[in-house]
Write a structure and sequence with these properties.
158 residues, alpha/beta, five-stranded mixed sheet, three-stranded antiparallel sheet, globular
Length: 158
């Protein structure tokens, strides 16, 4: 199995993790589809979203695959007046990652990062390893250490 930059960073920091492969069936596979393929609950899959703010040019939100980011909560927590999703066409230029393979670990630069606080209740969560078809299972507290993220209430309640 080829290691990604995110996996190499974890290796260098002696962080325990597990790589999980899955078959990419669709260019824009949802978190629900990835969870089914891996045989796990969709709440365990955390997606990485990149947003823009007027104070911080880029903000990273890591949220459960079945949730939506609450833009007002994220803006408030990050000290921005408002936040908007980064246009998809800019994702690779800003982060070094493509849609469906965006990891919160190993972006081109360190951006303010917020991990949904529900993750703190889990022993393990699954995030992108930095390429489609490969995920990282990691303790959320280790993810906080690596990314210098903060746990925060950043999702909409349905």
């Amino acid at each position: 199995m080829v290691k990604t930059n995110a996996a190499r960073i974890l290796d260098n920091l002696d962080i325990t993790y597990e790589l999980k492969n899955y078959e990419v069936k669709d260019e824009h596979q949802s978190a629900t589809e990835v969870a089914k393929t891996l045989g796990i609950r969709v709440e365990m899959i955390y997606k990485t979203l990149v947003l823009t703010g007027q104070k911080d040019p880029y903000i990273v939100a890591v949220i459960p695959g079945n949730a939506q980011v609450d833009l007002k909560k994220l803006a408030h927590i990050s000290g921005n007046k408002k936040c908007e999703m980064l246009p998809m066409k800019d994702l690779q230029h800003v982060t070094g990652y493509i849609r469906g393979g965006c990891s919160p670990i190993g972006m081109k630069k360190a951006f303010p990062t917020y991990l949904e606080e529900l993750a703190s209740l889990e022993n393990k969560i699954i995030i992108s390893a930095g390429k489609k078809g490969l995920q990282i299972e990691i303790n959320p507290h280790d993810l906080i250490k690596v990314t210098h993220a903060n746990f925060a209430d950043i999702i909409c309640i349905a």
